[in-house]
Amino acid sequence: MLASRHVDQATQAPVTHFPADQCCLEIDQFSLAYAGKPALQRLTLQVPRHRVTAFIGPSGCGKSTFLRAINRLHDLNESVSHSGEISLEGHNIHAPEMNVTELRRRVGMVFQTPNPFPMSIYENVAFGLRLQKRLAKRQRDDIIEWALTSAALWDEVKDRLHRSAWQLSGGQQQRLVIARTLAVQPDVLLLDEPASALDPISTLKIEELIRNLKSQLTLVLVTHNMQQAARVSDYTAFLQQGELVEYGPTDHVFTNPRLQRTENYITGRMA
Amino acid sequence: MDITSDTHSQHISRQFNHELEELKTHLMAMGGMVEKQVQDAVFALLESDSRLAEKVRDNDRQVNDLQLQIDDECTRILARRQPAASDLRLVLAVIRATSDLERIGDEASKIARNALSLSESSNTIRGLVEVRHISEHVRKMLRDSLTAFARFDTELAMQVVREDEFVDSEYGSAMRSLMTFMMEDSRSITSVLSIMWVLRALERVGDHANNLAEHVVYLVKGLDIRHTDPETLDQQAAPKKS
Fold it and tell me: Which of A200, B43, B104, B193 reaches 20 to 30 Å from A262, CA-CA?
């Protein structure tokens, strides 16, 4: 049968509920509004651990808003109100006892345009580490090498670690930003259109990196590029006008979506 | 989610609509050509029309050319459009269907070759009743599977799948009676063997028509029912509750 790996053999329904030990993020009836205008409406889904979950949907559907909410990047925006719950490893991220700095260490984020700091490659990766705790230089060097290796950048920069990060190409800068995030050993990596400003080869390198990072952490990817979602993700969620329309195993969503709205979007039909 | 026959003409890209519509049109043209080949081959055999049999044999090249052309179109669409969901299923179903249609063309050609050799025989030919009987069923299966493809009609497709079991059992009993003819009259062995090859070819046409019907179910419902036992088929083909 089609996509049998991700299908409940009894009901033939795609599997999107995970036991607690396999679930990294749990979103329960989460709604968010900008100045009273709803941007996300009662989102409910589970994001499995050590998998890539892609969010697709038209511009303004709430994909990036949702991604930023996981990191509590809306906290300083007073016009934003929200309800419902987002739990990371079983803990509500909006609970009073949740330390936002610690949350952001555990949930790293990479944006559309690479944003290395105006300092050396080495210092870029060391930046988060220095904020976090004092480490012996030897230990810090090891972590930086590990982070750059994990971000598939070490071989390209190992001889020029102390040169400015701005000398790197766009694709290398994006991988440097990923290395900077990885250095503080997050549990989740949020990627907001990580390859949309990159050329096809750099894009493929980022996609390969995403696939390799799966064994270390949970990845949530927002992309306009449906082929990219199809290539790299294990699960795909389709958002439209702030609503979760369909969520399922990527194999299933891209070969036999359950709903007409999803079918129309991924095949480029008029709504 | 089930799709309908106009599903593939609603893209924002009109060019893509056009490409998919062309693909379906060409597949139907190939289906029509192959259907005619089977019909002519059987007619040539039953009516000892050797000129028609030669024509069928020669026309097989056109069927092969159409397969290459449609495969080419599919390759182009896959490379340039990277289709998903029902578009992807359409392209895959068409690739599979052309392969089955081409094989049906080969079987028609085999029937025509046997018709030519039988037309040279002076003896009375035994087994033509069986050929007529089975060919009627098989041609109906082929016609229905192509109609199901054109209309995205899974119910009709499931009828074809069920009909194939009937043809298989008819084929078995026809073979048994032909063997009796051979045992009764050893002079008839050559011609009866030819008829057996013809029946074998017709039975294969039925199998390919059955495959075509299975491709329709895949195309419309996204269910791959190949290699599935008959009892579970009816449950899967039943309309989904919305």
Answer: A200
Tell if the CB–CB gap between A267 and B224 is shorter than 8 Å. no
Pairwise CA distance, residues A67 & A84, whole Å: 15
| Cα–Cα distance measured from residue A242 to residue B172, given in angstroms and rounded to the nearest whole number | 61
Q: Please give the torsion angle defined by the CA atoms of residues B114, B115, B121 and B127, in that order, rounded to the nearest 10 degrees.
A: 90
> CA–CA separation, A153 vs A161, rounded Å?
11
Residue of A nearest to B224 (CA): A1
Mean pLDDT by 10 residues, chain A (271 residues): 51 76 94 95 96 95 95 93 95 95 94 94 94 89 95 94 95 95 96 92 92 95 94 96 95 93 90 59
Is B242 a member of any domain?
no
How many beta-carbon pairs below 8 A join chains A and B?
50
Question: What φ, ψ does residue A27 adopt, rounded to 5°?
Answer: -110, 125
**Closest residue to A256, CB basis, from B13, B16, B222:** B222
CA-nearest residue to A264 within chain B is B11
Domain A20-267: which CATH number of 3.40.50.300, 2.60.40.1940, 3.30.300.30, 3.40.30.10: 3.40.50.300
* Structure tokens belonging to residue B101: 């249609």
Residue A251 Cα distances to A4, A204, A230, B98, B237, angstroms: 9, 20, 8, 25, 21
Contact call for A266 and B13, based on CB within 8 A: no
Q: Which helix (H) or strand (E) holds A140?
A: helix A137-150
ipTM over 0.90: no
Q: What count of Cα atoms within 13 Å lies in the side-chain half-sphere of residue A245?
A: 23
